[in-house]
Specification:
6-stranded mixed beta sheet; single chain; elongated; alpha+beta; 27% strand; 4 domains; binds ligand LQZAQKY5; 8 helices; binds molybdate ion; Molybdenum Cofactor Biosythetic Enzyme, Chain A; Molybdopterin biosynthesis moea protein, domain 2; Molybdopterin biosynthesis moeA protein, domain 3
């Protein structure tokens, strides 16, 4: 029997899942040490300048450029200044030994590296340069009072360093999305089948950088499921369910939500993961909490999570998301629907489907580096074609 329902494409379903989703507005204050991977909720104004004071960029002698204008020039050495010292005044016609990072003595406007001198005292300066050379000026990188980083910036190692240098000790960060995973199925509740979707999807959420917790499995009872969904949505920013959405007699998720306004259930032209659904519930505080209902079959659930939920998590976090791609290492047949295959990445960055793909093998999935998305071209997809590659992180991770 042919299916009377026209299947959506993967792209159509991705757009459907993302429709109406906006960045979370919750913020929290974090110590800088806890802020890796987080997104700034507000501009950061520099408290301190970078560099904090004029300092030497080379080991050498601090001098007045005018005193060494026509080298060679011989100058008495009146002192030495190292990083951490208070700079002594430079008398006219003299030099002060200076170490990299040391404050420039008042009066000096040039640091002559040791290599341009004979060293010793008096020092003979053999080569010169215009005033300012080998001096890093206070605030030349960032001036106190100016914006060091803009709201929306993601904090990686370099940003944490900059914030430390400008005197920040804590930041206002966007809250991390909270992902709730609700698995369904009487066979899970009764222990006949281990609930492998919950740990996989919680881990995938965490690998993508969000807070994630499992709240299933819940039994095949629509009223009970609805109550659990409502309870979970109170403390979640997105709820992902697994199972119960195909055409069976006990498909609890579909039975519970099919009639709810804004929910969609239907086929997507992909394999695995043909049955899909999505919608939203409204929490008691008025928040719209997106719900993505994934198929129960473990590979279908995982592939669908990476295709649809990871971009949704980015949208909630306010971080950019774009599909990762890699060139195919071999020809792959393209059919009438998108196929998601476990793949291995070569050192050359090309991806190859694992041999012996058996449709639903969790063993093969566990042997894969990533999933590769074969487009529904209806003909051979040649080696070298860039295809979408799915993994929860770290390339596409949104928060540490
Ligand atoms: N008549 C039809 N039957 C099915 C269709 C269809 O279009 N017409 N689609 C098939 C496809 S494709 C898939 S995928 C599955 C999806 O079904 P559900 O989302 O309703 O999932 P369940 O029936 O609840 O479970 C499917 C399978 O996966 C196992 N499972 C479920 N949850 C977990 C879990 N958390 N951990 C481990 N394993 C899980 C479950 O025991 C079943 O074996 O529907 C086809 N049928
Ligand atoms: O699409 Mo289902 O995912 O074959 O198992």
């Amino acid at each position: 029997m042919t299916d009377p329902v026209v299947a959506s494409s993967v792209e159509e379903h991705r757009a459907r899942v993302l429709a109406g989703v906006t960045r979370l507005r919750r913020t929290e204050t974090l110590a800088l040490g806890d802020a890796l991977g987080r997104v700034l909720a507000a501009d950061v104004v520099a408290v301190r300048s970078v560099p904090p004071f004029d300092h030497a960029a080379m080991d050498g002698f601090a001098v007045r450029a005018g005193d060494v204008g026509t080298p060679p020039a011989e100058l008495p050495v009146t002192g030495v200044v190292a990083a951490g010292d208070v700079a002594p005044q430079l008398p006219a016609g003299a030099a002060i030994r200076i170490m990299t990072g040391a404050p420039v003595p008042p009066g000096a406007d040039l640091v002559v590296p040791f290599e341009w001198t004979t060293g010793g005292d008096p020092v003979r300066v053999l080569q010169t340069a215009p005033p300012g050379r080998h001096i890093r000026r206070q605030g030349e990188d960032v001036r106190a009072g100016e914006i060091a980083l803009l709201a929306g910036t993601r904090l990686g190692p370099a940003q944490l360093g900059l914030l430390t240098s400008v005197g920040s000790t804590e930041v206002s960060a966007c809250a991390r999305p909270r992902l709730a995973v609700v698995s369904t199925g009487a066979e899970l509740v009764e222990g006949h089948v281990p609930d492998s979707n919950s740990p996989t999807l919680v881990a995938a959420g965490r690998a993508a950088g969000v807070e994630a917790a499992a709240f299933g499995p819940v039994p095949d009872d629509p009223a009970g499921f609805r109550a659990q969904l409502a309870a979970v949505a109170e403390a979640a920013d997105v709820v992902v369910t697994t199972g119960g959405i195909s055409a069976g007699d006990h498909d609890v998720v579909k039975a519970a939500l099919r009639g709810e306004p804004g929910f969609w259930f239907g086929p997507v032209a992909m394999k695995p993961g043909r049955p899909q659904g999505c919608g939203a519930v409204v929490a008691s505080d008025g928040r719209r909490v997106p719900v993505v209902t994934l198929p129960g079959t473990p590979i279908a659930a995982y592939a669908s999570f990476l295709l649809y939920v990871v971009p949704l998590l980015h949208a909630l976090a306010g971080t950019p998301w774009r599909p990762a791609t890699a060139p195919l290492a071999a020809d792959v047949p393209g059919g009438d629907r998108t196929v998601v295959l476990p793949g291995v990445l070569g050192r050359d960055g090309r991806i190859r489907p694992l041999r012996g793909h058996a449709g639903h093998s969790q063993r093969l999935l566990a042997a894969a580096d990533a999933l590769l998305v074969v487009p529904a071209t209806g003909r051979l997809v040649p080696e070298g074609t860039a295809v979408e590659v799915l993994s929860p992180g770290p390339k596409e991770d949104l928060h540490a």
